[in-house]
Design brief:
The chain is α+β, with helices and mostly antiparallel strands and 406 residues long. The protein contains 12 helices and 8 strands. About 3% of the residues have low confidence. Bound molecules: flavin-adenine dinucleotide. Flavin-adenine dinucleotide binds next to β1, β3 and α12. The site of flavin-adenine dinucleotide has 22 residues, from β1, β3 and α12.
Length: 406
């Protein structure tokens, strides 16, 4: 049976992440929104802290490291719940994103590629790549949503893989120390031949072509990467090099079961930030939000607030469920997509509605509300858009294959 009561250990680590968000991220949030592509030097302090924490074997500060819960012993309580790596990473991602999601995506050693490594690496690889900062490079100029359309190739040449292709919109693509790259080992075999490879930043043939200017998450670098006869060691392939046509590309897709709840958590963090700000504004304006009176008998803004808070709660619970399932080794693709769809939509709805309800000040740069409105949109796009999540949910619920429901 599912038990979403948070154990003390997780509450302590989430609280620590919240302190980081409040004391380090919030004060510099606007600075790096205005100074796009400026390196947030304050994060170097965090890198040292994260390093210290992982050395000491305690919880990590932030988010996207999540996923590996093999060494987490299931708790011995009567319900036999294991709240491990995914749940911890989810809560930390939520708290740090409450502070600033662009900065959260820039925390050293906590990239989306780290979650991919944690999800599919062998124990030997995990030891080797334990202390890397890995970004995730799937998207190419010719596709975004259709992850099966990878054209980047990887050819084995002696003891090395040789990679060729172009990857676009790579979050932390310039700052990370490693990049997890999706490439095909044999394009004639279709999606089953798509594998992920860990490419070190200094690998010969890898270069950053440019950085993107964006609507939001400006503190996060988004890079175009070129792989031109890029050589990496043979054992930097994640998972098995065998191409199993029966299994399709389930191996690499497994990554999303871990990363989608994390992105949901980021959206939930930004949503909570906006709701807290809005509550303060409404309270200042003398508008009472009552939990004892039906919404239709309250001020219209209070009724909107209650509706948005209910959306926030359901997004939060869906994300907890998806992470709990991952920690408890239950297949969670459906729940991961449900959580991301709900949280992504809620994030954009709530932040923009909060800008609206706050009036002119909500649109101004005096507050961070307008920034959260811009930042939240990406959380409904990357790691699979709103439409793609709904498609996955529909396929699972209706029992249709990807060929039957496109
Ligand atoms: C700031 C930023 C950071 C990013 N970071 C990363 C990263 O770190 N790594 C990475 O690999 N990628 C990254 N991306 C890329 C991102 O994952 C893609 O943009 C996303 O998957 C959508 O792909 P697309 O932009 O090509 O849109 P398209 O796939 O062309 O889709 C366009 C629109 O059509 C809709 N659509 C597509 N197919 C269907 C369908 N079958 N049914 C209904 N609607 C459909 C989509 O939902 C969308 O609204 C990032 C993008 C941005 C903007």
């Amino acid at each position: 049976m599912i038990n979403l009561e948070l154990p003390k250990k997780l509450r302590a680590s989430a609280n620590q992440a919240h302190q980081v968000a409040a004391q380090i991220f919030r004060p510099i949030s606007r600075k790096y929104d205005l100074g796009e592509h400026e390196y947030p030097v304050e994060l170097d302090t965090m890198a040292a802290m994260v390093d210290g924490l992982s050395d000491s074997g305690t919880q990590k500060i932030s988010g996207a490291s999540g996923g590996r819960s093999d060494d987490e012993k299931p708790s011995t309580d009567v319900l036999l719940n294991a709240n491990g790596g995914n749940m911890s990473a989810l809560l930390n991602a939520l708290e740090t994103s409450w502070g600033d999601v662009g900065l959260m995506l820039s925390i050293p050693y906590q990239g989306l590629g780290n979650a991919a490594i944690a999800a599919v690496a062998t124990d030997e690889q995990l030891a080797r790549f334990g202390k890397v900062w890995a970004s995730m490079a799937i998207t190419e100029p010719s596709f975004g949503s259709d992850s099966a359309a990878v054209t980047t190739t990887a050819v084995l040449d002696g003891d090395e893989w040789v990679l060729n292709g172009e990857k676009i919109f790579v979050t932390a693509g310039q700052r990370s120390t490693h990049i997890v790259v999706w490439a095909s080992v044999d394009r004639s075999l279709g999606r089953a031949a798509i594998k992920s490879f860990v490419v070190p930043r200094d690998a010969p043939g890898l270069s950053v072509a440019r950085l993107e200017h964006k609507l939001g998450i400006k503190a996060s670098d988004t890079a175009v990467l070129l792989l031109q006869d890029c050589r990496i060691p043979k054992d930097n392939i994640l998972g098995s090099p065998e191409v199993n046509v029966e299994k399709g590309f389930a191996g690499v897709m497994q990554t999303f079961d871990n990363t989608r709840p994390m992105v949901a958590a980021m959206a939930i963090g930004v949503t909570r930030a906006a709701l807290e700000e809005l509550r303060a504004i409404l309270t200042d304006a003398g508008i009472e939000i009552s939990y004892d009176t039906p919404p239709n008998n309250q001020h219209a803004a209070a009724a909107e607030f209650l509706r948005m808070e209910a959306d926030y709660e359901s997004a939060y619970l869906l994300a907890l469920r998806a992470a709990w399932m991952a920690d408890n080794k239950k297949p969670n693709s459906l729940e991961a997509s449900m959580s991301k769809a709900k949280a992504g939509r809620t994030g954009t709805d709530v932040t923009l509605k909060s800008v609206e309800l706050a009036g002119a000040v909500g649109y101004s740069q005096r507050l961070l509300l307008e920034k959260w409105g811009r930042d939240s949109k990406i959380l409904d796009i990357f790691e699979g858009t709103q439409q793609i999540q709904q498609l996955i949910v529909a396929r699972r619920v209706l029992g249709k294959t990807s060929a039957e429901l496109k």
